Amino acid sequence: MKRPFIALGILACATQPLAANDRWDNISTLEENVRKGTYGTITSILVMENGQIVYEGYFNGATVDSLHNTRSVTKTITGMAVGAAVDDGVLSVDTPAASLFADVAPFDNPDPRKDAMTIEDMITMSGVLDCDDSNRSSRGTESRMHSVEDWASFFWDLPIRGYPGWSEKPATAKYGRVFAYCSSGVEMAGQAVERATSTTFQDYVNMKFFEPLGITLFGWSENGLGQAHKSGGLSLTARGLAKFAEMHRNGGVYQGQRVLSQAWTEEAVKSRVVARSDQGVEYGYLWWLSSYEISGARYEDYYMSGNGGNRVVVMPAHDLAVVITKTDYNQRGAHQKTDSFLKEEIYSRLTR
């Protein structure tokens, strides 16, 4: 059996790719495009097909052991931790989240709708609070949260978001929800896991995921109170990220060991809210949901996404998991370049 290909540095060759067929053999064009920066500043690419690594490359100083700061990719792993707590029977998506934060109460801007907000509202980015990272006028943006020490008080003191006449409203929206990208809500979903399990988030993730997946290389950033940054602070290797994707692709099983329930992995990737109507992108439980086209046929995929164009994609119809890590943080077009990489270098090979 051939060993997986590994490219080190800017573009240095090692061994040949492990390939189920010839679609992954010719990688010279892919590497040339990466070298030229066609798709931005890529640091790693890893492709798994049917559980086997068929391509693995490292660029721009990264190596197989490099920890990649993939920013909001962490959100999806936080969603998996919520799933593990649900599997453990200590949490439900219908749990009113505020009930777990009595130590932070009473909240500013009290409202019954705030008290009724559920874990599901948080992990579908459709809560009722004024929390929208894409709106600089929102009082609940990620940057404002980062500037204070106590993120729980920051979130729960937010006012109810408005739905002016020119905006979509939950009552008329598809799925009955309106999307607003809210990092602090994800932090609270992660803190809810801590409170429900009486375990630090780091320890819970280590027990539920890192140990069964065999992940030993990782790094957490923390807030001012020493709490794990659950919406964007986990750094993993490309192989570590691929293990999460592969586990989810297999319905919660990794190398024969049950990690998450099949029920949760199925529920997590069901459409719950429209995220980007102009692009046909919807959202599940902290998973982005979209589709791609091969030879005129459309297929569903789901993915983790982070600032800079970072992406971890699961393509069930083609038994693929794809990891792309990049460092183009806050650069315009970073995600679009990742889209182009997938179209030109991955989808195009699936016709072979």
Protein described:
The longest helix is centred in the N-terminal third of the chain and has 15 residues, at 73-87. The chain is α+β, with helices and mostly antiparallel strands. A hairpin with a 4-residue loop joins β8 (273-276) and β9 (281-283). It is built from 11 helices and 13 strands. 30% of the residues lie in helices and 18% in strands. Strands 2-1-13-12-11-10-9-8 form an 8-stranded antiparallel beta sheet, sandwiched between helices. It has a 3-stranded antiparallel beta sheet with strand order 3-5-4. It has a two-stranded antiparallel ribbon with strand order 6-7.
Helix/strand/pairing category: alpha+beta
Q: How far is the first residue's CA from the last residue's CA?
A: 21 Å
**In one word, what is the shape?**
globular
Sequence stretches where pLDDT stays below 50 over 5 or more residues: 1-20
Query: Secondary-structure element order, as H and E?
Result: HEEEHHHHHHHEEHEEHEEEEEEH
The largest sheet is: 8 strands, antiparallel
Radius of gyration: 20 Å
β-strand number: 13
Beta percentage is 15-25%
Strand order of the largest sheet: 2-1-13-12-11-10-9-8
Please supply descriptive tags for the structure shown above:
alpha+beta; 3-stranded antiparallel β-sheet; 352 residues; 8-stranded antiparallel β-sheet; disordered N terminus; globular; 13 strands
